[in-house]
Amino acid sequence: MTTYNIELKEDTLHINFGEPAQNDQIVKDAAARLEEMAKSGELHGGQLLKINGPVSIPVAFVLAHRLSHLYGAIAFFDPKLGKYVTCITHNPAYKLGDLID
Fold it and tell me: InterPro entries from the xrefs (predicted)?
């Protein structure tokens, strides 16, 4: 088992904490999992990636850095809004702050 779980289902990256650990280890495990997914072709890039699940700030930076090079826009689920909020965009079809179901 790992300290951070990452799984891609269709256009949504599902994330969650695994075994208890400190952020120094969690960021390494998250980065390693993303690298593994990229090498296998599982993370193939695209117009939009939605992310759903709990994340620490250091892990959020790892996700943003690695994924923003592959996807035109990234939206993160906000449970208070019940929608995804576009937080990174290089795609004119999605504006920063757009809400997505």
Answer: CRISPR-assoc_prot_Crn3/Csx3
pLDDT digits over 28-79, tens only? 999 999 999 999 999 999 999 999 999 999 999 999 999 999 999 999 999 9
**Spatial contact of 71 and 48, defined as CB atoms under 8 Å apart:** yes
The confidence score (pLDDT) of residue 1 equals 67
Domain range for 20 is 4-100
C-beta neighbour count of 87 within 10 angstroms: 17
CA 34, 25, 3: angle at the middle one, nearest 5?
A: 65
Q: Going along 12-70, which residue ranges are E strands?
A: 12-17, 49-52
Run of H or E including 20: none
Q: Which residues contact 99 (CB under 8 A, 6 or more apart)?
A: 81, 83, 84, 85, 86
Domain count, the chain: 1
